[in-house]
C-alpha cells in the first residue's frame, strides 16, 4: 500500500533548525530512511513538505484518489492553528497518525493543543526522528491487520 508522509511548515529546515529541540537529521534523511523501511515491508512511501497551508490541504485532497492507504502527518505549527487542514483530513477520511519530533506537552502551553489528535489513530511525540519510524511501524501493523 502507499503510505503518505506529510511535513508542515519549517520542517524543510530540519538539521539546521533548533537542533537541540528537533535533532540533527535532515528531512531528506528522514524521508529516505522511511522509504527504505516501507519498501522492505512491501509498501510505497510518498512524502511531501510545504510551508503553505493550502498546498498541504491540496495534497491531502489528492490522497483520496491516488491509492494512499494511510497518512503520517507532522503538521508542525499548523498542529495548533489549522482547522482547515484538520477538516481536509476529516473530508478524505483516511486513517492518519500525528507525529511530532519534540514532546509538545513539555514545551510552551500553546503547543499542548492539537486540532488533529482527536481524529488521529494515534499520536507519537518526543522521540526526534524516531517518532516517524515508530509511526511508520504502527501504520504498517494497522495495514497488515
Ligand atoms: C513540531 C512541534 C510544533 O509545535 C512546532 O510548531 C513544529 C514542530 C514537532 O515536530 O515537534 O514546527 O510539530
TrEMBL record:
Substrate binds at residues 74, 80, 87, 101-102, 111. Pathway: Metabolic intermediate biosynthesis; chorismate biosynthesis; chorismate from D-erythrose 4-phosphate and phosphoenolpyruvate: step 3/7. The record marks 17 as: Transition state stabilizer. The active site is at residues 22, 100. It catalyses: 3-dehydroquinate = 3-dehydroshikimate + H2O. GO terms for biological process: amino acid biosynthetic process; aromatic amino acid family biosynthetic process; chorismate biosynthetic process; quinate catabolic process. InterPro entries: DHquinase_II, DHquinase_II_CS, DHquinase_II_sf. SUPFAM superfamilies: Type II 3-dehydroquinate dehydratase. Keywords: Amino-acid biosynthesis, Aromatic amino acid biosynthesis, Lyase, Membrane, Transmembrane, Transmembrane helix. NCBIfam families: aroQ (TIGR01088), PRK05395.1-1 (NF003804), PRK05395.1-2 (NF003805), PRK05395.1-3 (NF003806), PRK05395.1-4 (NF003807). Belongs to the type-II 3-dehydroquinase family. Homododecamer. This is 3-dehydroquinate dehydratase. It comes from Dokdonella fugitiva. The lineage of its organism: Bacteria, Pseudomonadati, Pseudomonadota, Gammaproteobacteria, Lysobacterales.
Amino acid at each position: 500500500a502507499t503510505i503518505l508522509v506529510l511535513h508542515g511548515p519549517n520542517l524543510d529546515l530540519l538539521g539546521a533548525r533548533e537542533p537541540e529541540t528537533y535533532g540533527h537529521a535532515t528531512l531528506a534523511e528522514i524521508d529516505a530512511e522511511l522509504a527504505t523501511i516501507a519498501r522492505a515491508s512491501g509498501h510505497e512511501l510518498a512524502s511531501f513538505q510545504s510551508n503553505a497551508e493550502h498546498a498541504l490541504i491540496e495534497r491531502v485532497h489528492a490522497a483520496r484518489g491516488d491509492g494512499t492507504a494511510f497518512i503520517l502527518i507532522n503538521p508542525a505549527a499548523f498542529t495548533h492553528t489549522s482547522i482547515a487542514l484538520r477538516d481536509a483530513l476529516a473530508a478524505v477520511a483516511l486513517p492518519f497518525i500525528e507525529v511530532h519530533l519534540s514532546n509538545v506537552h513539555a514545551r510552551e502551553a500553546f503547543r499542548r493543543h492539537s486540532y488533529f489528535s482527536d481524529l488521529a489513530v494515534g499520536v507519537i511525540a518526543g522521540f526526534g526522528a524516531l517518532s516517524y519510524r515508530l509511526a511508520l511501524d504502527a501504520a504498517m501493523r494497522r495495514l497488515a491487520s
